[in-house]
Amino acid sequence: MLRKIFQRLLYYLIKGILVVVPVAGAVFLIIWIVASLDNALNISQHFLEDEHGHPLYIPGIGILTVILILVLVGFIFTTLVTAPIQSWLSRTINRIPLFNTLYSSIKDFTEAFVGDAKKFNEPVLVQVNDMGLKKIGFLTQKDLHKIGLEGEVIVYFPYSYSFAGQLVVVDSKYVSKLNMSATDAMKLVVSGGVSGLE
After folding, report:
1. What are 67-110's pLDDT values in tens digits?
2. DSSP 40-58
3. What is the torsional sign of CA 5, 11, 17, 20?
4. Residue 18 to residue 97: CA distance in whole angstroms
């Protein structure tokens, strides 16, 4: 009898863990990221003081400041900055050693997710060897003739439980489209195959 009660309690404990841990982990991660950004970018503590002369921290001001700056920059670049000025800025950045490499890499990576030409939106299945081993990835470049690789493509393989990944060049005959959304494919890979097939 006591053993059955213990097994039932253990069962409830496991079910509780399965419910609480993912929710708590996601909430904690979001709060930590937002709080860290807000704390780092909060300008109120540099200009405002409380009655004891200590810097006054107003939660949310840092995030709000970033959002307002991004909206303002977006407005300026889409309405006021002309194509010649954008071209001049691009040429100037390309002349700065090291900075141009970092800038272009980060810019391309950002545009791959939120730009007009999203890159991680075509999930594919790639045959890796003759034994039938296959990997899920995202087709990011379909035409490599400029670098002498006719009929080959670039596929990005994200790692499970990580935001890092591996970039490979593979013959297009080994690549086939997956019948699933890019979001579900990313969830499937990042979760190690336990999520994304709902």
Report:
1. 888 788 888 877 777 777 777 877 887 777 777 777 776 776 66
2. HH--HHHH-B-TTSPBPP-
3. negative
4. 49
